Amino acid sequence: MRPCTTFVRDLTDGERRLLQDGLRSPVSFTLRRCQILLASANRQTPAQIAANLGCTAATVRNTLHAFAEEGLACLHAKSSRPKTVRPLLDAAFDEPLQDLLHHSPRSFGKPRSTWTLALVAQVCFEQGWTPRRLSSETIRRAIARLGVSWKRAKHWISSPDPAYTRKKQARDRLIRLAESHPDWVLGFQDECWWSRLAQPTLHAWAGAEPLRLAALALAKGDPEPKALACYGLLRYDTGAMLLRFVDGRPVSQVTEDYLAWVCGELAKEGKKALLLVWDNASWHVSKRVRAWIKEHNRRVKKEGGVRIVVCPLPSKAPWLNPIEPKWLHGKKAIAEPDRALNAQEVQARVCEYYGCEQGDLLQQTDPPKKTRNRKKVA
C-alpha cells in the first residue's frame, strides 16, 4: 500500500532547474508533471493543484508517488502497449486438447459422459498441463482456437428446410401463447417403434464386468410382432405423456383416431385448444389428416370441445421436438437383456415408465396398400 503523500520532498537545485526547463516541453505529459511537482514544492495541496490545473487530485497524488519512487525519470511517459503473457494452454497443447475432447469424460474417471468447460479445466490440471485450475473463459478461448464451437448442438445446428427459420419461430410463438393461456395445451407429438428384439445402446455393469446388450432372437413359432408402434404426445404444461399403442402401423386413419382420443382426454380437463407440434411424416401431412382436422375444428366451433392448431416442424430437425429424447430414455428403461419381452409386457413397462394408463390398441382398419410390380415394356 502506498504511503499517504501530501507534498513533494525538498527539491535540489538541479532538480528544480530541470523542472523549470520542463515547463517549456512540447510533451503535454512532461509539462503537466513538472507543473504538479513545482506547485507541490511551493506547499500547495493536491486539491489546490488539481483545481488550478484542471485535473483530478488522484492525478496529482500519482505524480507525487511516481517522483518519490523514480525521481526525475517519472517525467517521461511509459509505454502504453498492453502487457501480454504466454497463455498457459498455448498452441503446444492444441493436439492433446483436441484429442481430449474426442474422449468421454468417463475415460478420465468422471461420473458423466459429456464435457463442460469446468470439467475440461479440471482434467487439464489433473493431467499436469496447467500449474493451476484455469477459469472456464480461458478454456473457452483455447477451444475456440481449435475452431470448435462450445454451444450445444440445438443452439447452432440448422436444417435443410428452406422454411426452417419461419417454422422454428412459429413453434416458439406457440410456446409463448401456451404460457399465457391456461386453457390451452401445447403438445409435442411423435410416433415410436418399440422393438422386442433390438437392444438400445446402454452403459451398464453386472458386478465387476460390463454388461453388453446384444440383439435377441425371436423364438420359433412366436406369433407376436417384432415391434409395436406407439403414438405419443408430450404435454408442455405438465410434462405428462399421452400414449396409445397401435395394432398395425401409423397411418392417416390411426392418426385421426389418436387425435380424437387426445382431444377427448383434454376436454375432460376443460381445455379449449391443442397446439400440436409434430414433424412432416406422411400420416401427419396427408390430405386426409388435414381435411379431418379442418372438419374437427368446424365441429368444435359449433358443438364445443378442443380445437387443434397444427405447427409443422422443419425437416430433419428432431432437436426441436422434446419428445424425441423421451423415447430413447424409455427404451433404455424397459430393456431386458436376458429374454425377449412379449407385446403385453412391452406395453405395460412403457406405460409404467411414463406414468400413463394402458389403453386399448388403436386399430388400423384401412387395408395396407399393395405395391404392384410393373413389367418393363421392351
Largest sheet: 6 strands, mixed
What separation lies between the terminal Cα atoms?
Answer: 100 Å
| Rg result | 37 Å
Structural class: alpha/beta
Helical stretch tally? 14
Q: Which term fits the overall shape?
A: elongated
Query: What's the multimeric state?
Result: single chain
Helix residue percentage: 40-55%
Average predicted confidence as pLDDT: 85
N to C succession of SSEs: HHHHHHHHHEEEEEHEHHEHHE
Strand order within the widest sheet?
7-6-1-4-5-8
Give the total of beta strands. Answer: 8
Uncertain residue ranges: 371-378
Into which percentage range does the β-strand content fall?
5-15%
Please describe what this structure looks like:
- This protein has 14 helices and 8 strands.
- Helix 2 crosses helix 4, helix 3 packs across helix 4 and helix 10 packs parallel to helix 12.
- The chain has 378 residues and is of the alpha/beta class.
- A 6-stranded mixed β-sheet has the order 7-6-1-4-5-8, with helices on both faces.
- The longest helix has 17 residues.
Primary descriptors:
two-stranded antiparallel ribbon, alpha/beta, disordered C terminus, 378 residues, elongated, 41% helix, 14 helices, 6-stranded mixed β-sheet, 8 strands
Topology readout:
Elements: H1 13-22, H2 28-41, H3 46-53, H4 57-70, H5 94-101, H6 117-126, H7 136-145, H8 153-156, H9 164-180, E1 184-195, E2 204-206, E3 209-211, E4 227-235, E5 241-247, H10 252-268, E6 273-278, H11 282-285, H12 287-303, E7 307-312, H13 323-333, H14 343-354, E8 362-363
Parallel strand pairs: 1-6, 5-8, 6-7
Antiparallel strand pairs: 1-4, 2-3, 4-5
Helix pairs in contact: 1-2, 2-4, 3-4, 6-7, 10-12
